[in-house]
Amino acid sequence: MNSTRKLWAGLAVLLIASFAALLWVGSEIHRQAPPMPERVVATDGTVVYTRQDIETGRQVWQSIGGQQLGSIWGHGGYVAPDWGADWLHREAEAILDLWATREHGVDGYKALDGATQAAYTHRVQALLRPNTWNAATGTITVDPDRAMAIRTVAGHYQLLFGNDPSTAALREAYAMRNNTVPDAEHRRQLTAFYWWAAWSSVTERPGSDITYTANWPHDELVGNTPPSNLFIWTVFSVLFLIAGIGLLGWHYAVSHGEEMVPVLPKSDPLAAIKVTPSMRATAKYFWVVMALFLVQILLGAITAHYQVEGQEAYGFALADILPYSLTRTWHTQLSVLWIATAWLGMGLYIGPAISGHEPRFQRLGVNVLWTCLLIIVIGAFTGQWLAVMQKLGLDKNFWFGHQGWEYVDLGRFWQWFLFIGLLLWLTLVGRALWPAMRTGTESRSIVGLLFLSVVAIGVFYAAGLMWGEHTHLSMVEYWRWWVVHLWVEGFFEVFAVAVIAFLFTRLGLLQTRTATIAVLFATIVFMAGGVLGTLHHLYFTGTPTAVIALGASFSALEVVPLAYVGFEAYHNYRLGKATPWMERYRWPIMFFLAVSFWNLVGAGLFGFLINPPLALYYMQGLNLTPTHGHTALFGVYGMLGIGLMLFCLRGLKPDVVWSERLLKTSFWSLNIGLAGMAAFTLLPLGILQLIAAIDHGYWYARSAEFMQQPIVDLLVWMRVPADTLFSVGALALAWFVFRLWVAPKREAPVPSATAVAAAAAIVPKH
């Protein structure tokens, strides 16, 4: 068996084993998820909440933006609090205040002496932590004092989500519009869902002293401190990382040879590719990419500004038209949509380019898919606006409004529409690639891997269809991260690696056999950590200990290949200077270099900063998460999308002079702006929140008291120069694309040898 076959076999075994383990974990999550009670009753027989209250409350929460307005179990927005953590602390304090007033005649427990406070703390933990779930009757029983505290906290939330003047300042601090939930009964039911999320966070699993969410969030008042297994698996994750880097270093030392071909082409081989009608039709995809990118930046600026003014933009009551939860929804969704559109356009362009085959009606299919993408964006965003403004109704929200799950907020109808669109894309690209798959040429493995990644991209979005409107929250989180992590970060990565390898081999700069082995090996390394690394998102979402063990071990391996991106960067840079005609591809390759840098910094450094269990216990949902998110999502996948787009544009407009000034401005402005955004705002703010979470508890790090400090306002304002520079880079790129079609400057034709000789013959001799 040759090296290529061994790598294919290894990849197949790895994927089968990894997905088998991932599916087993899913079955365990389903079996051990926090129970959903039929009733919550006090010991005196009073019904506090019903299952219908909790289920409807979750629907209300989803309709107002869900994870885009605050967070649940740490996943979501960062301006409003984590509602479960906030409720839990308020409920504990309400019980303590009740006892202090009744037993000591003081206004609250903080007026008591230290010894009494300590005794009360132990007492409230003994009240909150025991599991009173009765599976036979489907009931959770609470003490009458706790029931009274629940009513107190629920009253606060009902005022907050309404329009009461007493909570107006807090609504502004949380960037909530007035009357977020206009219906009083819906506000009451919303509190039931928040209570259940808090109950899951403080209630110990049967036979254990660890809660359903592994003692998350950190709050010493209720006894939530990191369990010992977080320490153990954090140590193991570091050991796995060191071992993985060592093994990969050994592999490079013994097998990494010279990749460039001995004789380089004298002219650009890609220039000989005939641009077919369907390839030419992909141009409109890249126009949409730029439009969505610019709108995403505008919405990002509005979303960031809400953290300063809360409900307004420079005095204008913007929240009445575009609430924070809506601008953040569109901002996060557009980040995925424009990047995915760039990659989809690249796939449609590269298929016929690889095979030299233009299937029948291919151009029609490309145009139909483009139209579908526009309909999905416009339709889904309209539905989300109607949902957040509470104009759609709960009965229609799940299908046509706002699902409330960060990055997969589309209504189910629009999800199905997108899935069908992806299957159409898979068909279009697959049938264009198929002739190249059948030829048996040396590059067949690269084309095969590209084809399989196209299949995976088309099919694996179906994970987003695996939950229903009332599926358990833990299971929704499990499937949601299949989409966000596996679909976006996994299979798109394999697609990109295969495309880049094809481009460099077709350019004649890499030997096909060497590139094939390198691509297969890189895919194995990425997927070894990438599949089970999905679990690091699920440590504290009502999941069993096995999730922490597997997630810690394999998410550490995700960082391993990123430790050697310097090799990739160096080789790409060297290839970009290999021949004079490669100057035509300077800026696509520069964006690939940026991908290497942000892979190391954004995905590697900032990713491993938050991924170990003990680190994430304190950091989940703090601004260290968007530090990783911005630098990895845009720095890696956004830059890669731009680089791939530029390769396509070079083929679509081969005779147009590219503006070096515009591309240089775009490249450096985007990269410096992204770095400034992380260095001057997200990272320092996240560190301040981390200190607060360790010293005072997670609830405090997310509270209005902390987030409205002058230093936080200053850090948010410090984003302005970096954001402005980033916007300049985007505008320069958009103007560059615009000028390729509008009044472009053509390259001067190169005179043929015959024409030169004829011209020389008529020059008069002196």
Automatic annotation (TrEMBL):
Q: Which domain of life is it from?
A: Bacteria
Coiled-coil segments on the chain, per record: none
UniProt keywords (A-Z) are: Membrane, Transmembrane, Transmembrane helix
Tell me where in this chain the Nitric oxide reductase subunit B cytochrome c-like domain is found. 37-218
Output one GO MF annotation.
heme binding
Q: Which Pfam families match?
A: COX1, NorB_cytochrome_c-like
Ranges annotated as spanning the membrane: 230-250, 285-306, 335-354, 366-387, 413-434, 446-467, 479-505, 517-540, 546-567, 587-610, 630-649, 670-694, 714-738
GO cellular component, as recorded:
membrane
Q: Which InterPro entries match?
A: Cyt_c_oxase-like_su1_sf (IPR036927), Cyt_C_Oxase_1 (IPR000883), NorB_cytochrome_c-like (IPR054309)
Example GO biological process:
aerobic respiration
> From which organism does this entry originate?
Pseudoxanthomonas suwonensis
Family annotation (PANTHER family):
CYTOCHROME B SUBUNIT OF NITRIC OXIDE REDUCTASE, CYTOCHROME C OXIDASE SUBUNIT 1
The residue range of the signal peptide is: none
What's the protein called, per UniProt? Nitric oxide reductase large subunit
